[in-house]
Prior knowledge:
Shape: globular
Radius of gyration: 21 Å
Strand order of the largest sheet: 1-2
Number of strands: 2
Amino acid sequence: MTLILTVIVVALVFEYINGFHDTANSIATVVSTKVLTPRLAILMAAVTNLVGALYGTAVAKTISSGILDSKLIPSEWASWMLICALGGAVVWNLLTWWFGLPSSSSHALIGGLIGAGVAATQNNLAVIVFSRPKEGVPWYKFDGILYKVVIPMFLSPVMGFLVGLVMMTLLYLLLRSWTPKWVSRAFGKAQLASAAYMGFSHGSNDAQKTMGIIALALAGAQSGVLDGLPSWAEFLRHPMMKDAAGKEGIATWIKVTCALTMAAGTAAGGWKIIKTMGHKMVKLQPVHGFAAETTAATVLMTAAHFGMPVSTTHAITTSIMGVGCAKRFSALNFSVVERILWAWFLTLPMTALAAYGLFRAVRWLA
Length: 366
């Protein structure tokens, strides 16, 4: 029982860190364009993240069952596997936050799950879920790491860049007769809506990842571990619930807990990353912020609909790059872009190695 509660606490710590680590994704542009003060921007992001986190559970289902085959993980090590996976992700998030690098919390968690899962099954790679194509079924409906993680991992940044580039180019054409004063005034107001949309989409994708971890931990602990619970804690026995249509989903108490935790983390802010995203990479005006936020939020909402745990960081960062390149390619600070790309490429392998090492150490000490 204590181990299960430890998993939940560590998962919520990850959710809190995810909140302040990824706050920049929701508010960097609206702060850098001076449409909102940092305090008001954080408040708006916290509220919209909270609402978004309560919307849908497709991503949570992917995290809980679409990456690792839980049947291959020894039940006595399942909780430790999740703790080590979360631990590797938390360490990487704090490290990249310290250096102001907008790395992906989503990929940090996925890398941690893969590394700890492989270690828990004695280096058995079969624990990773791979699905084969099915005739007549589109690829985005397949389960498995290839279709739910790997393809979206590359596709979402490309879409963010291209759609941001096209949207900003169209806006330049549509607004070429407007004065700079009117453009700034109109899109200063429009950016309030796009920033709220971005916050909502971030909550709808990122908060669900921790929901999936908690549901996975509790669902795997049903055989005897939760026996003897006091009456006030009986809700722990029910991590999943069925809706009116009979479809199984994440229990409401898990959704609310994760949503509130992410909102609290968001309220704490993440100024190092905000500075990188909003000031160092490319100089933004309200119209650029509107285009980048709208693009990234749309990419995230589409991914969440299909249960794909894509990176909020990748979506907004590449959207900002695309918007900047619509102005001119030299508008980008390529030294900052290079540092960000290195953080992206290293996230999955480094978190997998960290989680693998943590689990091996736990097993050796046990």
